[in-house]
Amino acid sequence: MSTEKEVLAKLRDAIVNLDIDGVKKAAEEALAAGIPAYKAVVDGMAKGMEVVGQKYEDGEYFLAELIMAGETMKEGMTVLEPHLKAGDIKTAGKVVMGTVRGDLHDIGKNVVATLLKAANFEVIDLGVDISAEQFIETVKKENPDILAMSALLTTTMIEMENVMKALEKEGLRDKVKVIIGGAPITPEYAKKIGADAAARDAVEGIRICTEWTKDK
Ligand code: B12
Fold it and tell me: Which residues line the pocket of ligand 1, CB cutoff 6 A?
């Protein structure tokens, strides 16, 4: 029988090694050993995601590994999620996200959503082709800390500006931080439309979101 520390290390290593079978086994072992599911997520898998993020920044891992790590994390979550009790994990903050109207690209957005969840954020992912009205309606209803938008087309990035204008018009601009991302997005564009930040990739995006909510 492994100790708690050993099982948590197995969970972490399974994420780092992108080991889908291993993460399931380690998650089951954690539950069998009486380790609370939230602990297995926070002190096991999420620690692994931190290592993966670092490896990506160091140029040792690439996008394919980031996506695989996200998939591995999802697999572990299928075992652990039913055992998570509401309120167990203090969320880092709430994020409403989506790909803007007219744009169906969601692979990058999904990587961002997975990494945000791994960093303890509550994520409301609206999906793709989301209009300014849908973003506004959800911000009003959910009162998130952060609104995160993705666009991959030069023809759809302009939608982000429409969302910014709508936030302003509805008096919501000061209530939510806005981060944008996607291949054509630059910090200059974020500045131009009045968003708070643009992220080059998911890891930078998560770092910015964590920084914004660290004093919550
Ligand atoms: C896969 C793909 C598709 C798939 C999308 C599948 C899906 N479920 O997403 C399909 C085949 C459907 C598709 C369709 C089209 N596509 Co396409 N597609 C791509 C491709 C090859 C890869 C995009 C991708 O997934 N990359 C991998 C992800 C992980 O990277 P990413 O999206 O950039 O995300 C990272 C960062 O940008 C960032 N990020 C992204 N979003 C966000 C959001 C936030 C908040 C943060 C913090 C960070 C962040 O983090 C991510 C991870 O680090 C790109 C080319 C390319 N190399 O980018 C073309 C590309 C984007 N597509 C293009 C085009 C033209 C189209 C079509 C118009 C083609 C057509 N004629 O039908 C249609 C448009 C459909 C539509 N209405 O959206 C062009 C866009 C050109 C332009 N400048 O506008 C590109 C650049 C190809 C090209 N060189 O011409 N496409």
Answer: 63, 102-109, 111-112, 148-150, 152-155, 179-184, 199, 201-202, 205
Reported pTM: 0.83
Q: Are 46 and 89 in contact (CB under 8 A)?
A: no
User: Which atom from ligand 1 is nearest to the alpha carbon of 208?
Assistant: 47
Domain locations along the chain: 4-83, 93-213
pLDDT tens digits, 72-112: 988 998 998 888 765 666 778 999 999 999 999 988 898 78
Looking only at the bridges linking them, the beta strands covering 197-199 and 121-125 are unpaired
What is the fold, at CATH topology level, of the domain defined by 93-213? Rossmann fold (3.40.50)
Q: Residue 110 C-alpha to ligand 1 middle, in angstroms?
A: 12
Fold matches, 4-83 and 93-213: no
What is the C-alpha to C-alpha distance for residues 107 and 171, in angstroms, rounded to an integer?
32
Span between the terminal Cα atoms of the chain, in Å? 39
Atom of ligand 1 nearest to the CA of 148: 45
